[in-house]
Amino acid sequence: MAEARIDFEIDGMRERTWRGDALRRIAQVHAAMPDADAAALRKELRKHASEFHCGTSWGRKVWPKACAEYLKVKFGIRPPQKRVEDSPLFKPADHAFPFRNQ
Asked: Could you give the angle at the alpha carbon of 59 between the alpha carbons of 33 and 49, nearest 5°?
């Protein structure tokens, strides 16, 4: 990914988006360490997360998605999938209601 693309245009004006800014920032981090492997790059991206989102909720939502997308394109790495278990979230024995039948 040579350069992050602008997500959309309105009346000929280029609009900035959180996703576009995140991809540009990730490309800058990767350009600073071009010979890094995927694990080192992932670690460095985690260090730069707070610089990007500055505590905002949108930034915190966008940064990990953009990092996963970038690592998938560059290294073919997919984020780990959540395990789906056969058992329900709460088993019947987890909750006791002693006064229910009184």
From this structure: 30
